[in-house]
Amino acid sequence: FSEGFKIILPCQNLSVEFADEIADICATHPSRSAGSESEVAVAERMADTLKNQCGCADAEIHKFQVRPQALTGWVYFAMTCFALGIISFFFIPLLGVLLHTFGVVAMVLQYVFRYPCFDKLYLPQESANVTAFRKCSGEVQGRIIFNGHLDANWHHPINTKIGGKAHAIVIILSLVGALI
């Protein structure tokens, strides 16, 4: 790990340029959802930057299918099952237990095991990655791989306004509610 820093630290002015480029991308394309036109524009810009400013011989844009809403789509199903399960538990207890079971199974399959049980319910979108290669100027001694995301995750409004403490409060209140 420290060997990598010995290579990168002498290039501090490059890291400033990278930071400036990333800041400019964030300013000009603030919403870069996976599969959006803005994400493709950023991919094209990064490929151009890698070719023309970083000395990469070739930079390619690789397109692939994603279903970005599917990542958290299970939450709506599970929460609906839990809410209906609580209500129905007072009238038809077996139905309440079944609804809770469906919600938990959906959560475990989709979130814990990453099994795509709800993915087909969402429309596919075309996303992109950029890969670039730069030839060595001398003897090959190692390979450096830089990795980053073109898309920008959607941020929960509460987390954006209040910070991570809001989620901690929600979790604590949920645990207190579960115990009561």
Helix content: 55-70%
- According to DSSP, the number of beta strands is 2
Mean pLDDT: 78
Name the beta content range.
Answer: 5-15%
How large is the radius of gyration? 23 Å
Q: What characterizes the major β-sheet?
A: 2 strands, antiparallel
Structural class: mainly alpha
Strand-and-helix sequence, N→C?
HHHEHHEHH
Q: Uncertain regions: pLDDT < 50 for 5+ in a row?
A: 4-10
Taking the alpha carbons of the first and last residues, their distance comes to 48 Å
Spatial strand order of the main sheet: 1-2
Number of helices: 7
Task: Identify the overall geometry.
Answer: elongated
Explain how this protein is built.
Helix content is 57%, strand content 10%. It is mainly alpha-helical and 180 residues long. The protein has a two-stranded antiparallel ribbon with strand order 1-2. The longest helix is centred in the middle third of the chain and has 20 residues, at 70-89.
Secondary structure elements and their pairing?
Layout: H1 2-8, H2 12-28, H3 37-52, E1 58-66, H4 70-89, H5 93-112, E2 125-133, H6 157-162, H7 164-179
Antiparallel strand pairs: 1-2
Helix pairs in contact: 4-5
